[in-house]
Amino acid sequence: MLPAALFFALFFSVCVAILVWPRRKFRGRGPLRKGRPRVSILVAARNEEATIERCLRALAAQRYPAGRLEILIADDGSTDNTAAVVRAFIADKPQFRLLSVQHRLGTTKGKSNALAHLCRAATTDFFLFTDADMAVGPDWVTGMLAAATPDVGVVTGITTARGNLFGRLQGLDWLLVSTSFACWPTRACPAPASATTCS
């Protein structure tokens, strides 16, 4: 019990330190991008039968022109009905496409191999990644593009978790790691482009 208490005391102390760490003023997001570029949304899935439809519904509900979206889902050797759930959902949605990962690209394995297949199949200049157990907000694409100004190479959002205590602690851990990564090289914390929710 004492080691766990010490861990959480240290963990939350670091979280607070990151939040109050002196940093230069962040200049905020740039202006909204003119026009609507084509965007590829890439989702790697393995045995996500229980969660993937929620993810796909959130992607279909984006407030972004469906004709400007290319939503690619890679079924990475699922042994459940993930592929069947995806096929049923995307049947009347031409912006969605299901890929079946059958081989490795180079030395990649697991999820990174599925993502490599998705990147190879994507046909746009903007790649947005999300997990199959996530439900992004309706302005996710617009928010990510707004943060992708010409001088920015990578944009990341914040994942918030709902559900049991373990899920919430996992979300807090992810927030700590991503905030540390974003803040310490420049000592400037960018505002999140959007929020993603998992359960």
From TrEMBL:
It comes from Hymenobacter humi. PANTHER family: GLUCOSYL-3-PHOSPHOGLYCERATE SYNTHASE, UNDECAPRENYL-PHOSPHATE 4-DEOXY-4-FORMAMIDO-L-ARABINOSE TRANSFERASE-RELATED. Its EC number is 2.4.-.-. This is Glycosyltransferase. GO terms for molecular function: glycosyltransferase activity. SUPFAM superfamilies: Nucleotide-diphospho-sugar transferases (SSF53448). It is an enzyme of class 2 (transferase). Belongs to the glycosyltransferase 2 family. The keyword Transferase applies. Keywords: Glycosyltransferase, Magnesium, Transferase. Its cofactor is Mg(2+). Residues 40-163 form the Glycosyltransferase 2-like domain.
